[in-house]
Amino acid sequence: MKNLSIYVHWPWCKSKCPYCDFNSHSYKQYDEDEYIACVLAELDRVYANLHDSQKSQKVCSIYFGGGTPSLMQAKSIGLVIDKIKSLFDLTDNIEISTECNPTSAEAQKMQEFASFGVNRVSIGVQSLRNDLLKFLGREHDASEAMQAIKYAFSAVKNVNFDLIYGLPEQKLEDWQSDLDYALKVGTPHISCYQLTIEKNTAFYNLYKNNKLIMPNVDTQAEFFNYTRKFLMENGYENYEVSNFAKDGFECKHNVNIWQYNSYIGVGAGAHGRYINAHGDYLATQNIKSPSQYVKAIKEKGLAYSKTEVLGNDAISFEMLLLGLRLKQGVNLTHLEEITGQNSDSFMNKQKLDLFLKEGLLEKSGDNLRLTEKSYHLLNQIIEELLV
Ligand SMILES: C[S@@+](CC[C@H](N)C(=O)[O-])C[C@H]1O[C@@H](n2cnc3c(N)ncnc32)[C@H](O)[C@@H]1O
Ligand code: SF4
What we know:
By secondary structure, the chain is of the alpha/beta class. The chain contains 16 helices and 17 strands. It folds into two domains: about 5-255, TIM Barrel, CATH 3.20.20.70; about 330-385, no CATH class. Helix 1 packs parallel to helix 3 (about 75-85) and helix 1 packs across helix 12 (about 290-300). The chain starts with a strand and ends with a helix. Iron/sulfur cluster binds near residues 16, 20, 66 and 67.
């Protein structure tokens, strides 16, 4: 039985970090009650748009992402969870996550969030070195992050740290000490992101003008390989390219989406993918601007800036792209069920045979997956494999 996931976007942050291109807006003022009322109305409206087969699925994960959803009042989180409960059945072991910025005021709210059902907290630690935090334009310092981590663990046992590596002045020892700290406090999940320079960010302008010099590809690879080896030796599974978890602590929300199950995205700029009342696979994207989002919901009930009915080619491409990121790979039976076509028809047969022969891909039961040899070659493999 397939399960459904729900993503709820909170689009505001205290300030905009210079590397971030997420849909996050530095706030002057906003009306939280109005925004949440729109999210609730949108959930009703999207529910009405769903195919019956989707309405009968259980919700296995709710993810409050941002932006900085830890700025929300706990009662708002409660209202959204209650609305979802009124529409759908939930799985017994549903995962309800909130991203949290590690400033003390927000971290102290974690207990309250937990009392409304949140059982997983993802903290944007980024680094535990004050000079690097400053470089990243963060609002918190290392001691505040450590305090936030304590608060998070006092509220829930499923805690994730986001950490960033590959910063210009970062040494492997700096990174090692971040990872050591994560191990010392026993966080069961660690997301390790390589710093990427995204368009429309302050870092992009610096980078373009040679004022920010990024580490070269070999250094980045050295950090990645080191991280993978170190965390795997210490009991973490590298279950997705950037994600490491102890057994049973993989992020259910992301895994469900990467396995190409349906998800609904509500809130400004949120994405979704579900089967609509006509039986089409629909990819949705909401208006990014919070005020325009609110206006559209009030006027029309929905705030899509873009929708696309996905054909078999788009589905197979996305399924392979997402599924191959996972250690367990992509399930070819699922791909065939969705598209009604043989999975071979989406792949270059010669390339597939060659990659299998060379040990760059392997089949395990119904799953096709990358191997130890090809883990870092995902993009090249996809490019050559897809017809
Ligand atoms: C949506 S952000 C939310 C977390 C929360 N707002 C915070 O910053 O603490 C999710 C994560 O993406 C990562 N991230 C964002 N932009 C990035 C970039 N350009 N390169 C690498 N990681 C990035 C950061 O680790 C961040 O914690
Ligand atoms: S990294 Fe987090 S806090 Fe910084 S702007 Fe992006 S979403 Fe906001």
